[in-house]
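Cast an eye over this sequence plus tokens and explain the fold to me:
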Amino acid sequence: MLFGALLAGLTPGAAEAQTPTVSDVGITSSPASGDTYGTGETIEVQVTYNLALEVTGTPQLALTIGTGTEQARYSAGDSNPNVAGNRAVLIFKYRVRLGDEDADGIAVPGPIVLNGGTIRRDCGGLVGCTSENASLAFGTHALTANQPDHKVDGVPTLTVSGVAITTFPASGDTYGFGEDIIVQVTYDHIHLEVTGTPQVALIIGTGTKQAAYSAGDSQLANPGPRALLRFKYTVGPEDVDTDGIAVPGPIVLNGGTIRRDCGGLVGCTSENAKLAFGTHALTDQPDQKVDGVLTTTPDPDPDPDPDPDPDPDPDPDPDAPLAASFTLSVECDEDLCFALTGEPVTFTDTSSGSVVSRSWTLEEGPSSSDPEVVHAWTMPGFYRVTLTVGDGDEEATASRTVRVEAADPKGSCTADDETLCLQNSRFAVRSTWWTAEGERGAARLAYAGTNQSGLFWFFDPDNWELLIKVLDGCRLNDHFWVYAASTTDVGYRIEVTDTVTGAVSAYENEPGRAAPAITDPAAFPGSCGVGASSSSSTSTVTETTLTPADAAPAADGTPAVTAAAASAGNEVPKCADGSSTLCVQGERYEVSVDLWTLDGQERVGLVAPPRTMDSGVFYFFDRQNYELLIKVLDGCAVNDHHWVYAASATDVGFELTVTDTVTGASRVYTKQAGPPAPALTDAGAFPGVCRP
């Protein structure tokens, strides 16, 4: 009876008269530090209505930042148009861009701008209700006054934001002779470019020692972005400090430079970084004492001198043909060498012939011309080491790949040729593939990758098929994320196992179509607070079968294609590798990427170190986080074309350009910012290139 009485009390006229109106406006985000948002931080505005709503498109909301106006975009994934009490909460987000500045605090005067979308009442089956357009004005709820707790400074000051000693003594609180002390200097919201060998002074006892910049240990572009500069000092035999070392600063350039690295960012200038530590300077650190004094005791029973080697290794024959070779101090097999993070690896030149020049190149490590080089990698991954020697007339090269695993693993993943270990050996990734004709096999691991990202191949080691990464999203949504992209139309299954909890996330693609990208930011819920020693292991499997619906629709992400051919007689230079240029197929094809984010930042994609004759990888923001897999294949035996295959695991927009440096023909593939696109499989990219 009560329900009937309520219905009886509703009249069509009363329902029709109810227009949704704004009942509250608030800024619900907070700056990461203090009261000021920096570049890349997100400002979130919540607009509350008195009635449930239905929203289409991407309405916008103007923010007054300084003397300008910027548009915050409606965030459907964070909004709730129908919450308890039939109210609606709409969330608008804006990411601070380079150059944004407001020292007094932003204002949100309103109104909402539909931007081609709609905001209407959601009747939800209510008798007599009509879907009225919502009022867009804020009225008395407008935040017309500057909000002093929400200032903006998108103009980086290039100042030091943190100083820390990141190493610990091998025993107790005192470093001994030969131990390394590493000082980490942090710059927030900035990418840096460092040249030369800057130094940082350490106060050890009554003396001053110089810690030298260690390029191999530093990370100049991290999520944030954030630059971490690391300086290393090795304790000498007379170093003593019983109170603890101090690091007062500043950095001394020592003939080098520390400047902002714009990386193609529009509007950026390469300014010099500030070198003073300010309030971040370190006074005496009681847990970081030093005692480098060597003490020796006589050997009570010294061993006799060993017999001379009856057959010592002969010195290299200078008349032998030039051939590059080197040995490593760690275990190696035919394909790989194996090391742990923090483990010093010694590389010794054993080249033959008359060597008059020498150059070592270590991925994420120092360059050197010495006969012997020692380096320790700080992050798991695959690292290529190359030695080039010359005799004045010609050069010879030798290379080895080192797989570095976590010395302090966070899980029990064991890497092999079919298993990829990510996030400090916590996550194990395996894949199998199959064709429509019934052929099947296990995906094989490419010897390239980082602690976050890896690659698999199916048929040919030079033809990479699958890019997969596991990202730590714990600070954002309390999950680890799985992102993947494949350049194939065969069927495959990917299994990602959390070796701590036993949870498995599995993804399948059926053969016969271009695979959609995998973007799963909710892959492993509740895993962030679980340590490697946890005994509360479960074994759950989350299955995802990839369907065309998982791929972004054409209007949102499928790469558009344009083509351009060089005029007859134009001379096209041979491809030259660079930081933003990838060369494949014997340096015939030049590949580059220009990208842009949803908030309008523009930059160029950067080439990650791993590559084969056919395949390469680009990263956009962080060297550990691969974003785009691209390959140019020789399809001459099939259809008289060279093919372009690519796949991305990103929501940024980009323009991928592939240029044939022989003919001058180019193919340009465009993906709009938004959902990741399905794989690009262009088997007709470059016709008529197979015959001279």
